[in-house]
What does this fold into?
Amino acid sequence: MAGVHVSTTINGDAVEFVCPGNETLLDVLRDRIGLTGSKEGCGTGDCGACSVTVDGQLVCSCLVLGAEVEGRKVETVEGLADGDKLHPLQSKFIEHAALQCGVCTPGFLIAAKALLDYNPKPSEEEIRYALAGNLCRCTGYDKIVRAVDAAAKEMSRVAKRK
Amino acid sequence: MTPDPKYTKQKFKLVGTRPLRPDGLDKVTGRARYGADISAPGQLVGAILRSPHAHAKIIKIDTSKAEKLKGVKAIITSADLPDLTNGDRGMLDILENCMARGRALYDGHAVAAVAAIDAATAKKALQLIKVQYKKLPHVTDVDEAMADDAPLVQPHVRTRGGDSDKPSNIVSISTFGHGDVEAGFAKADVIIEKSFKTEQTHQGYIEPHACLASVGPDGQGELWVTTQGHFVFRNTCAALLGMEIAKLKVTSSEIGGGFGGKTHVWIEPVALALSRKANRPVKLVMSREDVFRASGPTSSTSVDVKIGAKKNGKITAAKATLRYHDGAFPGIWGMLGAMTSFACYNLENVQSIGYDVLVNRPKVAAYRAPSAPMAAFGIESVVDMLAAEIGMDAVDFRIKNAAKKGTRASYGPTYGPIGIGPTLEAVKNHPHMRAKLGKNQGRGMACGFWFNFGGQTCTDLNIGVDGTVNLAVGTVDVGGARASLSLIAAEELGIPYEQVKCNVADTTSLGHNDMTEGSRGTFSSGMATIFAARNAVEELKVRAARTWEIDVKHVEWADGQATAKGVMHSNLSPLTLTDLAKASPNTGGPIAGHSESVADGAGVSFASHICDIEVDPETGATKVLRYTVVQDAGMAIHPDYVEGQFQGAAAQGIGWALNEEYVYGADGRLQNPGFLDYRIPVCSDLPFIDTEILEIPNPNHPYGIRGVGETSIVPPLAAIGNAVSNAIGVRMDHVPMSPPRILKAIKEAAAAEQEVSAG
Amino acid sequence: MLEVQLSGSLRDAAGGAASIHINAATIRELFRKIVEQHPRMQASLDEGVAVSINGEIYRDDWAQMIPEGAEIFLLPRIPGG
It folds into this structure.
């Protein structure tokens, strides 16, 4: 099958690649570009471990084709931190022990950031429903919800000061 | 000097605090490497062809067309995996499960494998392999498999503990207990007898099995793999492939969940065999569908429980008959269910009989406190029914009959100091019990038991010249143990937590370490870390003595430094660990401490849970309103991670109780091998899970640590069963209590009531 | 003299006895003498047993001392998850 040439932006960097038309964005990220932070937990869009944003929209990268991100902006977990400054979500996840094995964590961070981008002050219920597309088998979600809430509050404080 | 594992009460400076875990940064930035996250130059992609039949004879496998496909570098079948097991049936079963030998025993059983230059080619190659099957009758239900005319899964099996010498699907019948149950029932004022069923579930780890294997024609090889035990994987793979242990280097990746499912090999021998044949690295990753079909789920069960008590609440006799399936290969899961059955209680007359039964389903593997949750569902439900019949509070009834120090356990030995009483008292006094319940809401509680294990552990502690410490351990870190182990090392050495870096070493760098299972990770490696650190402290004292040119018996170690005792040495300033490390090149070289030990005598663990459930009587849907876990941890090294184990185990139990099940069709095929239809709890299904950590020190560990990882998956099935039963006024006897089952129970009860009032 | 209680399937290998009498100071010695008395128990030991000494379960450490008059139970070797 002839490859498709794609020019895109990933975590702010211009990236070009060639991939088969039927290759998923997840496989492109992991195997062609080497960004293994997004994980394949199921390959069918049921677990959210592969969550990324495309033009700010939260998607399962296993359900998006590599070819579809032509001319678009892709954000993955590798782009969350600002240089050596962690995103408040990243810090709070560590502080609140919101990860045990950590394999679902990249997906949760991306999904939580997508939530806070459109709803900076979510209630517990809003957090739980926004993250219902991300499966975690280790934590029971308790500390994850607390971490997201803490990050939201911190980001609010910082925004107020500005 | 043999280290003494006995508990010595001491005040801690660091242990019990909540510092940040050392692997946190890598895990929140995507830098951490799991099983499928590394690649090797020139690597091939492996793929496995699996049987679409529940039971079939394999007449012929024709790989000729696949071999001609451009890009295919190796194809293997069982012919490439000769039997080197030397009559070891257990090892042969493992080998046969990894690759079928003339017969497919379950839907998903591996029959052939390919290694090709990319995934697309590998997939095409699988489609070109022609397998000629002769379908055989199959059986997937545990009770049906016990019938005399059931299709035989393993013709060589004869029932151990059974009467006849005829082929059977019943692997063994195991009996535990003491006293005279018939006499006990005769004395009872009230007897409750009921049967229960639980369906098969999967550990559900988010990361599928994955490995990168690289074997050369010189018999040396490397394996990068997601596993709960890389040393055991090494030994098993080496044995199956005829390799020497020292020549197979296995490195544990970060593990994305295991819960017992990654204590067995599934694809690893296949990847190694492919790599050996192709003489190139082979990366093999299981799809989610294959994980469900062909790794190691739990047993489904069928359990009969009978308990009798006097009007004052004292149990006079308890009996359980438990039928568990092992999948297609013999196992001990029914036996384990029988062992754990009545372990929470102080009983004069008790009997539990466990059946292990073969069915055409994947080989059952351990799942967090294996076999205990299913037994607890039946028993804790009947305990509730009995308490209600007598008119006694459910918690008080359990307190009256709880096991304690000196009780003869239902599985045989006499208990030392145990925590079941304290967890029940804590539940009784917990504010959760006073929360108001509304319409269609019910409260349930249950208690649970599990063993804790020790095992072989080897730890290496090396001090760098700047005074920072490398702690190399061999137990895989499944949930944050590196933080706890660093705390322990820092506590023993008297240095800040941040000065210690804990790593999980590969198999060439340490002696054998048993797997992270049986709640042993922190318990065993913690013990080995204490001994290795104390070892290092002895050496530090020697170095101080050399530096001061005094006798080492005058040197003391405390708070991270050596001081010289005695008036004659009062002029000598203390030497810190960093001072001694810096001077080490000239005082004898690198300073280190080692420990090879067998941590053992770990004791047992108890938990009691409370939950509130709301049931929608129109749809049968349930909502978990409140959930509380009380469990004895002995000593919580890092409380955040102990809480995490309580909450995670409870969440798995909640999913098992309310929604998770393997659905097999009449054709013997798994109908729901994916996360959409195998529905585990999501964030919106659960409330915050309240935890209370009790600390009753374990007398066989220097810090009093008990294993914590498994026990809290045991009570949820029954706690929720009791809550749902209280909410709808109908006793639930089939797990999962999914909406259709709850609706059916409500309707049947309503119909029965109508009959009674009409008649 | 220790009274070694046998559980479930281990009783078969001892000719159906619920307990056997052995003199031993360590687990290793216990196993050696059990097999001397009941050769069929070798298969069970090979498969894996755990020893409970006064309620504490030992799966691996055969050097473990057995106190005088201790309560001894032979159990199948139990895996965790």
Q: What stands out?
A: Chain C is about 30% helix and 25% strand.
